[in-house]
Amino acid sequence: MSLWLNALGASVRFHDVDGVRTRCLEAGEGPAVLLLHGIGGHVEAYAKNVVPLARRYRVIAVDMLGHGMTDKPDGDYMLPDYAAHILALMDTLGIARAHIVGESLGSWVAYWMIQAAPSRVLSWTCCVGAGLQVDGFDNLRSPGVAELRKRSSQASAAPTRDSIRARLEWLFHEPGRFVSDELVETRLRFWSNPDMLRIQPMIAGIMDPERGGQFYITAERLERVATPTYFLWTEFNPTTPWQAAETASRHVRGSRLDIMPNCGHWPQYEDPDGFHQRLLGFLDSVAVGADCTPAS
Asked: Measuring CA to CA, which residue among 112, 101, 37 is closest to residue 67?
């Protein structure tokens, strides 16, 4: 099914966020749920999710700073920059508090939103999240992120259908089922944009341990998190194994952990029904004030 057939019923809107034109895919009413993509990503990563989740929530998938069709100003593109942009977007949309669902880099951004403005984050869903440094595991020095750096560098240096497809396919447990020509073409359009080529080295800088390492989500930092937290992982995530997420979850009091089978780095795309069932169970428990205890 086409990306945009999945998204029928949602609206594409552009918002002026402190001078940064920001693209969002939006639907629904009620408590706000913001969906944040991974590094190099865009709202199409959530094409299968916005409308189903919008049956119970106001759902907003965001092209983060410099990504997709959002403006690409010069800057450092470090975690505080992304977090400030999303918090400013919330101000623009009149959203006082929101559930933040982040995949990969998006989850890392969500954590730094908690650091900047904890009262504004109703819950944090850390979906195959980046930036963990817990009990001997170092995300930015892991073999998975080394491979992601290599494929990202190849695709950004020479954005072709083949280089973009190779990077996308690596993310999925069953790439033949999910990496369509439409998805490849969509990302190729974004990554071929001259402005994207200009800022790509800054975006990639977050994967450098010397630059990104100052923003690690360490065990000590996790132990200070008071926000309801959900570690939603996968059996075959290529960047951070589920065992590291299990370790991280033990450092956040009252957190929940789930591991989705037969998925790689985009569980929301690979198994949307399973993703929705698990995520809605967590969000609904937060909404009614239920105790978010670890899954058995």
From this structure: 37
Q: How many residues are present in the chain?
A: 296
Q: At what angle do helices 194-204 and 181-191 cross, to 10 degrees?
A: 90
In 3-state terms, what secondary structure has residue 97? coil
Angstrom distance (rounded) from CA 98 to CA 121: 5
4 by Cβ neighbours in 10 Å (0-12 / 13-18 / 19+) ranks as middle
- Looking only at the bridges linking them, the beta strands covering 98-103 and 121-127 are parallel
User: 226 — phi, psi (to 5°)?
Assistant: -105, -5
What six digits make up the tokens of 203?
Answer: 């975006």
CA–chain centroid gap for 127, Å, is 7
Regions of the chain with pLDDT less than 70: 288-296
Question: In the prediction, which pLDDT does 1 show?
Answer: 76
What three-state secondary structure class fits 288? coil
B/e letters for 40-70, b = 16+ CB within 10 Å, e = fewer, are: bbbbbbbbbbbbbbbebbbbbbbbbbbbbbb
Measured CA to CA in angstroms, residue 233 lies from 43, 108, 248 at distances of: 20, 14, 11
**Predicted confidence (pLDDT) per residue in 36-85, tens digit:** 999 999 999 999 999 999 999 999 999 999 999 999 999 999 999 999 99
Q: What is the DSSP string of 144-179?
A: HHHHHHHHHHHHHHS--HHHHHHHHHHH-SSHHHH-
Tens-place pLDDT, residues 121-151: 999 999 999 999 999 999 999 999 999 999 9
Residue 10 · residue 50 · CB < 8 Å: yes
Listed residue (239, 191, 217, 212) closest to 78, CA to CA: 212
Tell me which residue has tokens 């290529």: 238
Tell if the pTM clears 0.85, that is, is over it: yes
d(CA 215, CA 166): 28
